[in-house]
Amino acid sequence: MPSASELVAMRRAREVAAAVLLADGPNPRVGCVILDAAGTVIAEGAHRGAGTPHAEVAALLVAGDAARGGTAVVTLEPCNHTGRTGPCSEALIRAGIARVVFAQPDPHAVASGGAQRLRDAGIDIESEVESDESRALNREWSTAVSRGRPFVTWKVASTLDGRVAAADSTSRWISGPDSRRDVHALRARCDAVVVGTGTVLADDPQLTVRDAPLPLTGQPLRVVVGLRDIPTSARVLDDSAPTMVMRTRDVDEVIAALGDREVRHVMLEGGPTLAAAFLGAGLIDDVVWYVAPMVLGAGPPAVADFGTTTIAEGVRLGEVRVEQIGDDARIVGQVQQREAHVHRDRRGTWTDHRGDEPAR
Ligand code: AOF
Ligand code: ZN
């Protein structure tokens, strides 16, 4: 059983983890509080992004010799591997820590095993203490790491009649300024922002975080997917953020390539053909949909045909939340698992509907 002071320390560990502005990847948000042998808080530490010390090491550095015989309270199971930094399990052992209280077991196959290593070294272990609360700090990271592919959030801004641009392809300022700020804050949490070549050609978006605080992890990776040529003058190719151009129509390949780069959270920003490919492939986890109080009557829809023929094949959302943002409505939900009978022939690839509707 964790003691009362350990539970207070665990809450504080979550606070210090959450206070560091990081994207959802490649590494999790982690906090650590160290109590001395008498149960008094002597140090705290938080992880500040891949390549910097893990939370445990940051806290041990502050605690120094006073950590001997003390307790480390951590939001994530201490790692047991040498990645960009050394194993926290060994650092805790070296520091003479007598007890480790942690929340979420590490879902990372390579990094996990810390609890066992600590137990083998004779350290008293208390695991899964308020584990759900700590997992919530890194919901997308946890899902991505345990599933072995990035978490995908599909963001849409449409009119009331579900259109994302007018017939002449103009789409700027469908949603209001508050929604745009909200989108930038969402981008700041993502490791990569993905668009199709059609969107680059139609909108020339920059796809950077500008209207929200930039995380320590920096600008998200910009990813352009599709077979069409984009001009070298495209804003997505400027030097304000890294950009990856993937000349493919296979969205499974895109997701696998991003996973290989340790991207944990992908924001899919459009347009209709790419969204259809992701939906058809079952690759979308969350949807964030801004609906602007405006009717266009003509123009491309938010999503192209992805092979549904009857109502039961539609993609449904659960855990739905609706909020007003300025004059817009924001609808957020999680894609529900679909029946297996959904058309699988379109899985993973899509065709550009050039001609019959503006390709985006
Ligand atoms: C962190 N910060 O405070 C803890 C982590 O590549 P590395 O060496 O940075 O290792 C990253 C992995 O280490 C990460 O995926 C997670 O499984 C584990 N623990 N990571 O970034 C921390 N405690
Ligand atoms: Zn570690």
Verbal overview:
With 360 residues, the protein is of the alpha/beta class. The chain has 2 domains: 4-138, 3-Layer(aba) Sandwich (Cytidine Deaminase, domain 2); 149-353, Dihydrofolate Reductase, subunit A (3-Layer(aba) Sandwich), CATH 3.40.430.10. It is 26% helix and 21% strand. The strands form 2 sheets. The protein has an 8-stranded mixed β-sheet, with helices on both faces. Strands 2-1-3-4-5 form a 5-stranded mixed β-sheet, with helices on both faces. Strand 7, helix 8 and strand 8 (221-225) form a beta-alpha-beta unit. Helix 3 runs parallel beside helix 4 (114-120). It is elongated. The termini are far apart. The model is unreliable at 340-360 (pLDDT under 50). It binds ligand AOF and zinc ion. Ligand AOF is lined by residues 27-28, 30, 47, 50, 54-56, 76, 79, 83-85, 88, 106, 108, 111.
Shape: elongated
Strand residue content: 15-25%
Question: Which CATH C-level class of the largest domain is it?
Answer: Alpha Beta
Secondary-structure-based class equals: alpha/beta
Give a summary of the structure in a few sentences.
The protein is an alpha/beta fold and 360 residues long. It is built from 10 helices and 13 strands. The strands form 2 sheets. Strands 9-8-7-10-6-11-13-12 form an 8-stranded mixed sheet, with helices on both faces. Strands 2-1-3-4-5 form a 5-stranded mixed sheet, with helices on both faces.
